[in-house]
Design a protein that fits this description.
By secondary structure, the chain is mainly β. It has one domain (2-298): Methylamine Dehydrogenase, Chain H (7 Propeller), CATH 2.130.10.10. Helix content is 5%, strand content 42%. It contains four helices and 24 strands. It has helices spanning 31-34, 52-55, 229-232, 293-296, and strands at 2-6, 11-15, 37-39, 59-67, 70-77, 81-86, 92-97, 102-107, 113-117, 122-126, 137-141, 148-151, 156-160, 164-172, 177-186, 195-197, 204-208, 213-217, 222-224, 239-242, 249-252, 266-270, 274-277, 283-288. Strands 3-2-1-24 form a four-stranded antiparallel sheet. The two termini are 23 Å apart.
């Protein structure tokens, strides 16, 4: 299963990578209509206070997290909205409007939520643990802030900026978090974008920039060579993840053919290699996720799909 940020439908989608209707040459089908689950704040009248017609513009992140024993989707949009949504019910645990170009989001163990914004150069810790509407935050300055990844083992928040990969420690209380810089690493090339744990190798991080895809070893404090590097390392990768079971790597990068210049309607697989076309989509990011949707509960999910 894939979790995707689709700017054509402006929805977060759960997609089946083996669905034959997505293959090139088959009858075109809108990705949102073939999704097994999808979400948009425009479906929730309770979020009208956040002006989703403006703040939910160019969905920029979609992550799966198991938190407190439940299945969650973390998402944000360049228009400024960020949210934590139940994959089981579609209900919103927390949402706010950052009024910034939000590019990634992460949940911390205490339920607070981190948001990275690129053109505003910040990583914020929102006190989402305090209220579903909490807009209070602490802030760390990081030029070009893009990717975020929580390191459970070391209790650190990793973030990628224009020129640096940083590790942040969050202290204080849940209602008054404080952010401390623990490590700052110069990126081998400019334009840090995605940061993600290497699922098959704990202690390693995927890090993408404008021109390359790297792996960073937290223990050795160095960027290291990795299996499949010759095929995987390419410019412009917006998101990367590997399947912890098969080891197959999934990347998304603009293809120059999509109506959205920073998007694609194809996802690339590596180890083994392959291309999956998803018609009428403009994917900004897509990530592997566990096949948890069917097991989450036994209800009909047709109400989660967009109408028409």
């Amino acid at each position: 299963m894939l979790l995707a940020a689709d700017q054509a439908s402006e929805r977060v989608l759960v997609l089946d990578a083996a669905n034959p209707t997505w293959q090139h040459g088959m009858q075109p089908m809108r990705a949102a209509r073939s999704a097994s689950w999808s979400w948009s704040p425009l479906d929730h009248s309770g979020l009208s206070r956040l002006s989703p017609k403006r703040s939910w513009n160019n969905v920029s992140e979609a992550k799966y997290r198991l938190w407190e024993g439940e299945h969650w989707v973390l998402t944000c949009a360049s228009g400024g909205m960020a949210a934590m949504v139940s994959l089981t019910t579609g209900s919103v645990r927390w949402a706010t409007r950052t009024d910034a170009n939000a590019h990634s989001v992460e949940v911390l163990p205490n339920g607070n939520v981190a948001v990275a914004a690129s053109t505003q150069d910040f990583v914020r810790i929102y006190t989402a643990s305090q209220s579903s509407r909490s807009a209070h935050y602490s802030q760390f300055h990081l030029p070009g802030a893009h990717g975020l990844q929580w390191d459970q083992t070391r209790e650190l928040l990793w973030a990628a900026g224009d020129t640096r990969l940083v590790a942040l420690r969050v202290s204080g209380t849940a209602s008054r978090p404080r952010i401390h810089l623990v490590r700052s690493v110069a990126l081998p090339s400019r334009g840090g974008h995605d940061v993600n744990a290497v699922a098959s190798s704990p202690g390693l991080l995927w890090v993408t920039t404008e021109s390359h895809v790297y792996q960073y070893s937290v223990a050795s404090k160095a960027f290291v060579a990795y299996t499949g590097e010759q095929e995987i390392d390419e410019p412009g990768v917006k998101s990367i993840s590997d399947d912890p079971v098969s080891g197959q790597v999934l990347t998304v990068a603009p293809d120059g053919e999509n109506p959205c210049q920073w998007c694609t309607s194809r996802v690339a697989f590596h180890l083994p290699d392959g291309i999956q076309g998803i018609t009428k989509s403009s994917l900004y990011k897509a990530r592997w996720m566990p096949a948890v949707l069917a097991a989450a509960d036994g209800r009909d999910r047709s109400a989660s799909l967009p109408p028409g």
